[in-house]
Design brief:
The chain is an alpha/beta fold and 122 residues long. It has a single domain, classed as Rossmann fold. It is built from 5 helices and 6 strands. The chain has a 6-stranded parallel sheet with strand order 3-2-1-4-5-6, with helices on both faces. The protein is globular, with a radius of gyration of 13 Å.
Amino acid sequence: MSPAKHIVVIGLGSFGTAVATRLAENRCRVTGVDSQRERVEALKDVLYEAVIADATQRDALELLPLKTADSVIISMGENITLSLLATLHVKELGAGRVVVKGVTHEHGKILEKLGVSRVVFP
């Protein structure tokens, strides 16, 4: 049996929570990250690890297992600036496969220029 995939989900709004929960149901080790304590608390018993952190702050992201995770999923709501900042930091910190929720077509193009593996538009 192969070891469980480890996925870091940054942003636990409605989309991020749905993705993190589904991955956990499928036996992935999910580290969920959000700056809002309520969102993290709601998932702490469902996920492998739940962390309160501001993903726009590089020093907070340095404490996460970004380099060793199989994938990092970024879902920062509708704020393009916050999404781009988190993506930039995650890429610079050595994350391999990075999937980001896009907001607009232009946002998606910028994310591709940053080198993300995939942009999704749910």
